[in-house]
């Protein structure tokens, strides 16, 4: 038997949940982890809809960027197998790893160029203004063959790598049209279904380029308030709650 608290620790780390997480007693079945929240997304559009409810589910779980923040707070490669920065800080070169989207299509440089170029259109209404501001110093995003991408800056930006770990740095399949109700990413979990008003379900992606998740299914369940969330934990309906109600 595997203790539920150990599974939860792995899942919480993998899902990037920064809020307080509380686990209940050990469980016989580790195939599914259910997490409780009080804030449900209104859309799956991670680029165009504000708030933390969407990235809490999708960022680094379903969608990934070229780089990510590791457990120690450092910037490490993700979809980029490696990268280098010119001495003047104006050119960033990324070598892409062999990864694929959840629909089975391979990740190529054109996907990265298309995704990041969306952040360079200062008149765009498809992405949040905060994201446009984060990439204001990027002049161009270009492909060097199918496996390398170059970002050229107008001036040095010491925050660029960190900004690439956030929602503005998410890499989509080129020409993706529907962001609101579907999600085709490269991450360790596949978006499976959304029962609006109730839950979002993710399934492990067995074609993932990195370490496979230990848990097959992760369910995000949504509750009306903190009291209902606490009651669900006490009843054993969820394994993790992300807020703790004061006594």
Outline the structure in words.
- With 247 residues, this protein is an alpha+beta fold.
- It folds into two domains: 4-38 and 188-241, Periplasmic binding protein-like II (D-Maltodextrin-Binding Protein, domain 2, 3-Layer(aba) Sandwich), CATH 3.40.190.10; 67-169, Dipeptide-binding Protein, Domain 1 (Dipeptide-binding Protein, domain 1, Alpha-Beta Complex), CATH 3.90.76.
- 19% of the residues lie in helices and 24% in strands.
- The chain is built from six helices and twelve strands.
- The strands form three sheets. The chain has a six-stranded mixed beta sheet, with helices on both faces.
Spell out the key features of this protein.
single chain, 4-stranded antiparallel beta sheet, Dipeptide-binding Protein, domain 1, alpha+beta, D-Maltodextrin-Binding Protein, domain 2, 247 residues
Give the structure's gist in a few sentences.
With 247 residues, this protein is an alpha+beta fold. It has helices spanning 4-15, 53-58, 109-117, 129-134, 160-164, 226-234, and strands spanning 22-23, 32-37, 67-69, 75-77, 80-85, 91-96, 138-143, 148-153, 189-195, 199-204, 217-222, 240-241.
Task: Please specify the SSE layout and strand pairing.
Layout: H1 4-15, E1 22-23, E2 32-37, H2 53-58, E3 67-69, E4 75-77, E5 80-85, E6 91-96, H3 109-117, H4 129-134, E7 138-143, E8 148-153, H5 160-164, E9 189-195, E10 199-204, E11 217-222, H6 226-234, E12 240-241
Parallel strand pairs: 2-11, 2-12
Antiparallel strand pairs: 1-12, 3-4, 5-6, 6-8, 7-8, 9-10, 10-11
